[in-house]
TrEMBL record:
Signal peptide (residue range): 1-30
InterPro entries: LysM, LysM_dom_sf, Mito/Outer_Membr_Metalloprot, Peptidase_M48
Cofactors required: Zn(2+)
Entry keyword set: Hydrolase, Metal-binding, Metalloprotease, Protease, Signal, Zinc
Organism: Qipengyuania atrilutea
An example Gene Ontology biological process: proteolysis involved in protein catabolic process
Keyword Signal: yes
Protein name as annotated: M48 family metalloprotease
Entry's Gene Ontology molecular function annotations: metal ion binding; metalloendopeptidase activity
GO CC entries: membrane
Length: 496
C-alpha cells in the first residue's frame, strides 16, 4: 500500500477500472486462432496508450535506472521477434515497482514485468522467456477474445466466482460485494485460460529460438515460479500451492513446465547470459518497498503513514499499491482509505455505499464509536443475503487527523466477524524511530568461494525462517544440488 499522496491519485484510476478488463484480460474463446504475426493496428496502439499510465499507477509505477533500462532492452529485443512491429522502439517495456510475481501485456505493444518476478529469474534467457510469453498473448489477440466474450457474460460474475473459491470456501460472495473487494489491478489481470497460456508459451519459445536464446528457459522460469508458489503456500500456512494474490495472471505454472520443455526439444541450445543478467540486477529491491509499506511476518508497518497492524494467526497478507489484503479460511479483509471530511460515521456509511454500488443499497445496522490505542474509531456491520447463505460485512475506520482516515473492510460468513477482532484492535501509530527502522530488502549477487555451502550462505538471507528453502528457490537449485566455486548466486539482504 503506497503513501497517502499516491493513493489519492489512484481514486480516479479505480473508478475507471471496471471498463478496462474488457480490453486487457484473457479468456478462452471459440473460433479460429488469429494470425499471431499480424502487425499492431492503429486502434490497438491507441488503446494501449490510453491504458498504459493507468496500469503503471496500479502496479507501483515505472522504475528507472540501469536495471529498468536493461529489462527494457531485453524486452524490446524479444518483442520484435513476434513480427508485430519491425522497430524495437514500437514496443514499450516497463519494469514496475511491485512486490508480486507477475508479468502482463496489453494491446499496442505494451509489456510489463514486476521487479519481484525479475528477482526470481536466473538468467537473461528467462527474462526474455517471460516477456516473450506476454508478447505472445498480444500477438494471439487473447485480450480481444476476452472482450468478445465479455459482451455475452458478466465480467464481475467471473470475478465473483474467482473470489468465491479463494476467500470464503462454501460461502461465495455475490457480484455486489465482489466489486467492493476487487482492486483495479485484480480486474485488470484476471486469469487467462489454460489453452491461452499454452499458446503464449509456444509463441514465447519460438521467439526465444529465433532470437538465439536457450528455448528451455521457458520451462526453467516456469519451474522457479511453481516452486515459489509452493514455498509461499508453505510459509503462509496454506495447504495448497494456489496463489490468491491480487494480480496473479499465471496461477498454474507447474502444469506447464513439462509442456514447455517438450516444445523446446529439437531446437537450438542458445545462450542464457546468466552472469550478465545477475550482474545487471544486483541491488534490485526484493519484496515490499517501504514507500508502499512492508509485511514482516504477521505485521504490516508503513513508515510514511506511521502506522502498523497485525494479522490474526492463520491469516496471511498481500500488499498492493492501493490496499493490503488479509486472507484466511474464514474470511478476507482489506486495509485501505477513502475521502474523509472529519466525520467518522459518515466515512463508514460512505464505504458501505461504495461497496454496494448502484445495484444494492448497503448500510450498517448501526455505527459504534470507540477508541483503539488512542485512535478515534467507528465501525458498523451489515448482514447480506447471498443466495442461500449470508455474509457479514464489517467496516472499521480510524481517524489519524482531521483530514485523514483509514479503514478495514472485512467479509466473513454470518456470525463469524469476530475472527478479525484482534486485527481491528491492533491498529496503532508508530514512532519516528520505528519508522526509521524499516529497511528494505535487496538482492546481493555473490560469487561462491571455496568452502561455501548452501546452509552457510542461506544464513545470510534476511529472514527469520525458511532461509535454506528461500535460497534454493531464489537460485533455482534442487534439493540435492551443490554450489560450484565461481558460481554467482543471489542473496536477499537488508539494504542501506
Amino acid at each position: 500500500m503506497t503513501t497517502i499522496r499516491k493513493i489519492a491519485r489512484k481514486s480516479t484510476i479505480l473508478a475507471a477500472a471496471s471498463a478496462l478488463p474488457l480490453a486487457l484480460s484473457g479468456c478462452a474463446m471459440g473460433g479460429p486462432i488469429p494470425d499471431s504475426s499480424a502487425p499492431i493496428t492503429q486502434s490497438e496502439a491507441q488503446q494501449g496508450a490510453e491504458y498504459h499510465p493507468q496500469l503503471l499507477a496500479e502496479f507501483g509505477g515505472r522504475m528507472t535506472g540501469p536495471q529498468a533500462a536493461y529489462v527494457e532492452q531485453v524486452g524490446q529485443n524479444i518483442a520484435v521477434e513476434s513480427g508485430l512491429a519491425n522497430a524495437r522502439t514500437d514496443f514499450t517495456v516497463s519494469l514496475v515497482n511491485s512486490p508480486i510475481n507477475n508479468a502482463f501485456a496489453i494491446p499496442g505493444g505494451y509489456v510489463y514485468t514486476t521487479r519481484q518476478l525479475v528477482t526470481l529469474m536466473n538468467n537473461e534467457a528467462e527474462l526474455a522467456a517471460v516477456l516473450g510469453h506476454e508478447v505472445g498473448h498480444v500477438a494471439a489477440r487473447h485480450s480481444q477474445r476476452r472482450q468478445q466474450r465479455a459482451q455475452r457474460n458478466s465480467l464481475l460474475g467471473a470475478a465473483g466466482a474467482i473470489l468465491s473459491g479463494v476467500l470464503l470456501g462454501n460461502n461465495p460472495l455475490g457480484d455486489t460485494l465482489s466489486r467492493g473487494f476487487l482492486q483495479g489491478s485484480q480486474l485488470l489481470t484476471l486469469s487467462y485460460s489454460r489453452s491461452q497460456e499454452l499458446e503464449a508459451d509456444t509463441l514465447g519459445i519460438q521467439y526465444l529460438d529465433s532470437a538465439g536464446y536457450d528455448p528451455k528457459a521457458m520451462s526453467t522460469v516456469l519451474r522457479s515460479l511453481a516452486l515459489q508458489n509452493q514455498l509461499d503456500a508453505q510459509l503462509q500456512g496454506r495447504g495448497d500451492a494456489t496463489l490468491p494474490e491480487w494480480a496473479s495472471t499465471h496461477p498454474d505454472p507447474a502444469s506447464r513446465v513439462q509442456s514447455a520443455l517438450q516444445k523446446a526439444q529439437g531446437l537450438g541450445d542458445g545462450i542464457t547470459n546468466r552472469d550478465t543478467f545477475l550482474t545487471r540486477i544486483d541491488g534490485l529491491t526484493y519484496g515490499d518497498d517501504p514507500d508502499q509499506g512492508v509485511i514482516e511476518g504477521q505485521r504490516f508497518i508503513h513508515p510514511d503513514l506511521r502506522l502498523t497492524f497485525t494479522a490474526p494467526d492463520g491469516y496471511y497478507m498481500v500488499n498492493s499499491t492501493t490496499a493490503v489484503g488479509i486472507n484466511g479460511q474464514t474470511g478476507q479483509a482489506q486495509f485501505t482509505l477513502a475521502p474523509y471530511n472529519g466525520n467518522l460515521e459518515n466515512y463508514v456509511r460512505s464505504v458501505f455505499a461504495k461497496i454496494g454500488g448502484e445495484q444494492q443499497q448497503l448500510a450498517p445496522q448501526s455505527i459504534q464509536r470507540t477508541t483503539v490505542n488512542g485512535l478515534p474509531a467507528a465501525y458498523g456491520t451489515a448482514r447480506v443475503n447471498n443466495g442461500q447463505t449470508q455474509v457479514d460485512l464489517v467496516v472499521f475506520a480510524y481517524e489519524f487527523s482531521d483530514d485523514r482516515a483509514y479503514h478495514f473492510q472485512a467479509v466473513t460468513p454470518a456470525g463469524r466477524s469476530n475472527v478479525f477482532g484482534s486485527l481491528f484492535n491492533s491498529m496503532r501509530r508508530i514512532s519516528q524511530n520505528e519508522a526509521a527502522g524499516v529497511i528494505p530488502r535487496v538482492l546481493d549477487v555473490y560469487t561462491v568461494k571455496a568452502g561455501d555451502t548452501v546452509s552457510e550462505l542461506a544464513r545470510r538471507m534476511a529472514y527469520d525462517r525458511g532461509q535454506v528453502e528461500r535460497f534454493r528457490v531464489l537460485n533455482g537449485l534442487t534439493a540435492d544440488q551443490q554450489l560450484q566455486v565461481g558460481q554467482k548466486v543471489k542473496l536477499v539482504v537488508r539494504g542501506q
